[in-house]
C-alpha cells in the first residue's frame, strides 16, 4: 500500500480503495491475508477504528472475509467484485456526466467515439 492519504475523501474510504486497488492490480490475490487494522493504523498513523471502518466496507461488499483469530483475507471472486464496482463507478462518475454535457453542446455519440479514438 502507498503511504499517502489525501483530504479529498474520508480516510476509511481511502483505506478501502487502497486495498481494492491492490486486489485489482493483483498485488493481493484471492486467499491472501490483508494487513490488520492495527498494521494499517500504524502504517498511516490513524486510529485503528478508522482502519476497521475501511476494512468493514470491503467485508460488506464481499471483497474480504474474516477468519476468527487469524485475520482478514481476500475473498474468492474479489477481483471481479472490485472490477464490477469500479466499472459502475466509472459509468456514474464519468460517462453519465459526459453524455449530459455532450447533449448540451450538441456533440453526437459518434463524435464522442471519434474523440476517444483520437486520444488512443
Automatic annotation (TrEMBL):
SUPFAM superfamilies: Winged helix' DNA-binding domain (SSF46785). Keywords: DNA-binding, Transcription, Transcription regulation. PROSITE patterns: HTH_GNTR. SMART domains: HTH_GNTR (SM00345). Residues 9-77 form the HTH gntR-type domain. It comes from the Bacteria. The keyword Membrane does not apply. This is GntR family transcriptional regulator.
